[in-house]
Amino acid sequence: MKRLRAFLPFMMPRDGTCYITNTVLVDLLPKLRCLRVLSLKGYGITVLPDIFENLVQLRYLNFSHTLIKSLPASICTLYNLETLILKESLLEWLPSDIERLVNLNHIDISGVKMKAMPYGIGKLADLRRLSDFILGAGDGYRIRELKNLHLKGDLSLSGLENVVKAQDALEAKLIDKPGLDALRLMWSSISGSSIRDKVVEEEVLNMLEPHRDLKVLVIESYGGTKFPNWIADSSFKNLWSLDLNNCRNCKFLPSIGNLPLLKDLCIRGMHTVTKLGIEFYGENHLNSFMSLETLCFKDMSNWKEWDIDEHAVKFPCLREFCIVNCPQLSGRFPSSLHSLETLVIRQCTQLVVSVSNLPQLHDLEIDGCAELVLRDDADMPPLRKVSLSNVSKFSPLTERLVSGLTNLDHLRISNCNELASLSWKQFNLVRHLWSLRSLEISSFPLLEVEVQQLQLEKVCTIETLTIGNCEKLQRLPQDLHFLTFLTEMQIKGCPCIVSFSKNNFPPALKRLVIQSCANLRCLVDQGENTSIDNTFLLEHLEIMDCPSLVSLSLPNRLQVLIVSYCSKLASLSSSGELPVGLKQLVIKDCLVLESIVHTIHETSSLELLEIWLCRNIKALPQGLKKLDHVEKINILQCQSLVSLTASGLPARKLKSLCIMDCQSLGDLPNMQNLTALKELSLSYCSPDLPFPKEDLPTTLTSLSVTGPKLCRTLLQWGLHRLPSLKKLSIDGEECPHVVTFPPEGCVLPPTLTTITISGFGNLRSLSTTGFRNVDSLRELWVLDCPELESLPEKEVIVSVWKLYIWRCHVTLLAQFIMNDGAEWLKISHIPDVIVDRQSIIPKATWVQY
């Protein structure tokens, strides 16, 4: 072990919880004098021990994604250290003697919220990669320290508002650093932006001219009124990405059209720009942006005009184009973008968008524009996906506009009033969509009974149909039964629909969601036969927020039924039976529902049963105990439920049972035969609810109990009789007799990993004897025990990783907060201590990841 060269973290477990003891950090690591690589990446370290003077052979240190705020001074004795990774940590400052690390080659502090850099960074002659250089208040002159550093890769300069002399920026010598690939220049976006000197910031940016080999440039929150000329210099032959963000005072964009290899351009938050003129394209404005592939304009609140020369060759390689939240931009959209594949326009309510001369356009998304235009002499592009929302006008709106949409896969139309006001007899939007797979129509306030004129039988390939917020829609199209590939349908916010026609359901429909249809009374028209025959393939039915619904007709092949917020639903099934194949049944907030069904057939496939906020349900269905497939039952806030004895509980596969806030429940059925039960929660029911008549199943791994009778009987019965128990939560409200937990004679199972103790008003101590054998305990939660003054001795809770204390005795809390006293000594080894929602850092630190 003493010759170990590399110490690396284990792979993080799925639950994200793992610890390493203080012994490893304080005792083991100092002995590994041959160590070259040390990584504690991802551990929840808060404090590092000052042990590094013994590890002088270290070349690589990684404390990224940790909770450390500072590095120990002994770090600066690692004269052989070459790489220091602190990415995404909570580090507040680097060591003041960092200049002593003469072999340091790489420092990564990206994502670290440091306020300033230490002195001496500029003396690290071998430093080649520095992710960030942060200039604190009054320290702007220290940008000069970059002068002699031969940096490579990516560099982010932040706090540039603190540079008050342009000469200091010039001395950074960025122009002499050919190894830099990406440069990010950042000024503060919040503090003092109104009093900053615009002229100084213009001079500073001018002096921060980088080498011509730069590939990526970001300028953020720059406060000057104009950009320097070097940004648009065509000699930047390798620059492929440019991002100008939140440069609020710049009235004009730089003339960057002649940057020869520029591929990605993003311009955001330029609120003073009102016009994009010919200067934007550069000197050779007839042939500009020749390599650009991605262009995005976003959040430009005062941009009104875009000069476009339709005869010039611009953006010949542009594939993705996005304009978002430019509400005053008016006029026409650029055309002749022959390589454009994706076009996104959002919140540009004055803009006229043309889709003429876009021969490669596949994806079109428009949410808010003045007009969508297709010239008479232009062909429709080969669109695959179209989303149109809040488009005020279509020009021209003729058959030719949609005749070219034969390859369309996905179509979404929302709140396009001109389309909604059409007479579908004169013009049909969808009959040319022979390849359509997904159709969504929403916010058509004028769409009424004429919806059948959509002629949906012409788009027989459709698989998903959504109709939403059509306030006057009274019934669905009669030709839905022609859609033989339709498997999913959603109907939302259609208050005039009262019922559906059984004969009109698509034959292959498997999933149906109905939401916020205020006047829906029944699933199938009551004038028809209310049963649904075996030819109906529906497997998933979800009905939400339909307050007028009174009854349901359930198809025989249904597997999932979810009904919620249907306050008048009186009957779950018109036949009085559930489908035999039903696997999941979830009912929430159905206030008048008195019964699910009287009896469930023993051949039922039910696996999940959840009932929430059904205040009139008095009992669960007969035959429940005979079901072979039920794995989970949750019953919550059913105030009229009085007994579970008649229905019983399914014994064969039931793994999880939760009964919560059922105040009238008077008894519990036998649970000893529930041999598969792993999780049991009995909470906030009647104070007189007794303990189950027989023993609890020994298979339990999680137990949560609330109530005086349950708690008292459970402690008397003996928790040690649950040999597999890992998680225990016990709420002792109205248990004044309990002053010590566990009470004398009660032994906790040694398998416990998490214990939560709450609501014991007179609890004064946690028993050392009771906790003695719980060697696997990892988390201890003690909540709302106002008299608690004493915890178990340290030796019996040495395995604990997390301690959470809330609303306990003030003297106990004071010791923890002050890191002092006998009770503090008991828990000072625990790495994660939270007292009244305040994190306490123990002096003897362990580590978590």
Description:
- The chain has 849 residues and is mainly β.
- Among the domains are: 1-134, Leucine-rich repeat, LRR (right-handed beta-alpha superhelix) (Alpha-Beta Horseshoe), CATH 3.80.10; 159-224, no CATH class; 701-848.
- Helix content is 7%, strand content 24%.
- It contains 9 helices and 46 strands.
- It has a 32-stranded mixed β-sheet that branches. Strands 1-3-4-5-6-7 form a 6-stranded parallel β-sheet, with no helix packed on it.
- Helix 3 links the parallel strand 10 (180-186) and strand 11.
- The two termini are 23 Å apart.
Summarize the entry for a quick read.
By secondary structure, the chain is mainly beta. The chain is built from nine helices and 46 strands. This is R13L1/DRL21-like LRR repeat region domain-containing protein.
Considering DSSP H and I runs of 4 or more, what fraction of the residues is helical? Answer: under 10%
Could you tell me the mean pLDDT? 88
Terminal CA distance: 23 Å
Cα radius of gyration in angstroms: 35 Å
Shape assignment: flat
Q: Given the structure, what is the number of helices?
A: 9
Strand proportion: 15-25%
Could you tell me the number of beta strands? 46
Tell me about the biggest sheet?
Answer: 32 strands, mixed
Helix vs. strand class: mainly beta
pLDDT below 50 for ≥5 consecutive residues: which ranges?
423-427, 843-849
Domain R13L1/DRL21-like LRR repeat region: 143-270
InterPro entries: LRR_dom_sf (IPR032675), LRR_R13L1-DRL21 (IPR056789)
Pfam families: LRR_R13L1-DRL21 (PF25019)
Protein name: R13L1/DRL21-like LRR repeat region domain-containing protein
